[in-house]
Amino acid sequence: MFKKIFLSLFFFWLFFSFSKADIQWVYFRFCDMQNEKDQSKTITIQPWQETEVCLNFFTTDQDPIVVKYWFSEWLLNQSEIQVCDQDMSDNNDFSKLFTSTEWKREFTLSSWKIETVKEKIRVPLWMNGMTYWCVAYTVQADNKRAWWIFDIVVRKTANLNLFIWWDADIKSSVTLLPNNWKIFSSNDKIKAEIVDNELLLSFLVNNQGNISQNVVISWKIYNPLWFQQRFEITSQKLIPGSSWEFVANIWAIPFYKWPFNVKFNLLSTPSFDFDSSKIDEKLKEPISISQTWQIFIFTRIWLIILAFIILILVLIFRPMFKKHYITPTPTIINQPPL
Predict the structure, then answer these.
(1) CA 137 – CA 63 distance, rounded (Å)
(2) What is the pTM of this model?
(3) CB of 251 within 8 A of CB of 195?
(4) Residue 256 CA to chain centroid, in angstroms?
């Protein structure tokens, strides 16, 4: 029993002794960011236009540390979570975009001194849209021994994404999609249904462009008998190609229900997850969609009223359709007196 515990402690010590724990004292950030916790950056770039990527490294370790960094691709793990690829070479698709002629991305990092690294990146003409990549780095341990059984590479990663565009390629577009409705509507893009005597309205919005959109929906429902309610759905972010069903509870509505008018307004504002200062201002203009339609909610009350109206009409117009019979008047022939 004692031998098993000793061996377990030995391998536990061996595991953590071989890992490169020095990396915990190495910090990284992009040059234009002040917070080391912000480990995600998206840069805008046009095809075949060379752009600079600036990286800052810093250490609080008292001894100099050899740092190695590289660029890799995203992968999806078994849990469908995006993680950085292990590839540390210059053969992956992201590394090939950097124009450095020599693949030797190593340097010695001195204590309490910021090391700034600048790389040039150029994307081919056929690439466009949003792409997701990584920058990763590790350290070279100074106390490595030849008798070590194995070496564990501990690394840190950050997101380095590209939005590759031409002005003509940026598309800002949202639309209302047809929505299956249960109550008759004059517009097939609204779904109305009654649940526990409460009216629910649903709007299905689709982002058909290639940039994110912040969508806000406001509307009012009213009828000729002075019933009116106004509503607004707070902003919802739609990524490119996605759809979202906006649902609102109108609560209780008048007992007589049908009919109602719905006036609808959608305001969609383009949302750029990167520096958009170089993009044409026309592409930043919001999209507005306004529509008006009617919904018809039938109830027993309206059936009774309709039957009553039909009965009155029958009673009024029935005499007009009766057949009239004319009794012939007998002809009296005057005879001469005898």
Answers:
(1) 18
(2) 0.47
(3) no
(4) 39
Coil/strand/helix, residue 305:
helix
Rounded to whole angstroms, how far apart are CA atoms 155 and 147? 23
Q: Which of 135-139, 166-170, 269-273 has the lowest mean pLDDT?
A: 166-170
pLDDT digits (tens, 9 = 90+) for 113-160: 999 999 999 888 778 777 888 999 998 764 443 344 445 568 888 888
192, with CB counted inside 10 A (0-12, 13-18, 19+), is buried
Residue 246's closest CA among 222, 272, 265? 265
Tokens 């009654």: give the residue. 194
How many Cβ atoms sit within 10 Å of the Cβ of residue 47?
15
Query: If you search the block for the tokens 């046009």, which residue do you land on?
Result: 46
The identity of residue 59, as a single letter, is T
* Burial call 285-306: b when 16+ CB within 10 Å, e when fewer: eebebeeeeebebeeeeeeeee
In angstroms, rounded to a whole number, what is the distance separating the alpha carbons of residues 184 and 198? Answer: 16
Q: How confident is the model at residue 206 (pLDDT cuts 50, 70, 90)?
A: very high
N-to-C CA span, the chain = 160
Q: What is the DSSP string of 150-206?
A: --B--EEEEEEEEEE--GGG----EEEEP---SS-BSSTT-EEEEETTEEEEEEEEE
With beta carbons less than 8 A apart as the criterion, state whether 71 and 96 touch.
no
Residue type (1 letter), 172? S
**Cβ pair 138, 153 in contact under 8 A:** yes
Beta carbons of 273 and 42 less than 8 angstroms apart: yes
